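Bumping with the actual sequence this time:
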Amino acid sequence: MLAEFFLSPDTFCESDDRLRQLERCLFPFNPRQPSVAILCRLGEDKWTTALGQKIARIKNPNHRMLAMDLMKKIISELTVIRPLTRSVTNDESSWVVEARNSHRDLGFEAIVVSSNITTFPDNCTKVGDFVMPGFWEEFGNPRHVGRDKPAQVRVLRSFCAFSDWIIVRMPQIKGGSDDEIVTVKQIVQLATNLPEGFQKSNVEVQFPINDRAKHDPGRVFRAVKAELKDVVVPGSDLRLTMLPVGSFVNREILGGEYTPVSTGDKLLKARWLLTMNHVAVGGRQNPGRDDANSWNLFSRHEANKRLATLNGLAPLQSEIL
C-alpha cells in the first residue's frame, strides 16, 4: 500500500550492495505488482541536482553508474514533488531539517538517512534498516486498513495530495450521511485542504442509482449534492456523477495526472488504482468489523485500463458542484 518517504541524497553514496538492496525494496520483482513506495523530491530540481552532484563524486565508475541508473528509475516511476520550506545546502543534516519541516506541513512515513548520520531525530530511519524486509511488513499490498479516520488518512494522504485528478467510486451512496459519503468527504478534504505550495486536486464522485430510487433519480442526486456542498472549495472542481443501476459494485479510487496535448486540452493519465473491501469511519464498534477490510493497490497499467473503461460510461447525470 502506498507509503511516502524522503531519501537523503547521501543514501545513494552507500556501497554497491546497499544500492542493490535499495532497488530491490523499492521495485518488486514481478512487473505486474506495483511498488508501494512514493519518494518525495523536495524542491524538485534542488533534490535532483543535489543527488546528481553526490553521485558524480563517486569514484568507482561501476558504483557511479549503478547509482545513476537507480536515480533515473526512481525519478521516472516513484517520485512526487514537495515544495521547499527553506533554503538547503548539500549537507545531509540540512536536508534532514528540511524534510522534517515538510513532514510537519504534510505528514509522510519516514526520512531515510545514510549511515553517516549518528544521531537520529524523530521520524528518521537509517538506510540499512529501510532496506530490510521487516521494515516493509506494515506496508504490504493488499493491506489491512482499520475502519476509522486516522487509519484511512494514513493510506489516502499522499494519494490525494499528489494526484491532479481523483475519481472516487462508491456503490452504496444513497443520499444520506453514511460511511461512504463520510469517506468521500475525507478524500475531498485530503485532496484540497493542502499547505501552501501544493496543488489542489479535481475530484469526481461516481455512484450508481439505487434500484429502489430508480424512478426518481433526481431526488437522490439532489440529496447527495446537498451532502457534499460543504466540502466544495475554490480552486478545485468537485464533480458528482450518477450512473445507472448496477453499474459497479466495488469501492475504488483512481488518481493521476493531466497530460497536455497539442490542442491545448488535458488528457487524464492514471497513476494509482486503489480498491477497498469496506470503508467505515462512523461510530459503530461491532465485534469483528475490522477483520475483512483489505485495501489493494494496482499497477499503473491496470489503473490506465480501468480509466479507459470509465471513459466509456454513460452517466444519468453529471454536474460540477
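The C-alpha cells above came from a reply further down the thread. The mean pLDDT is 88.
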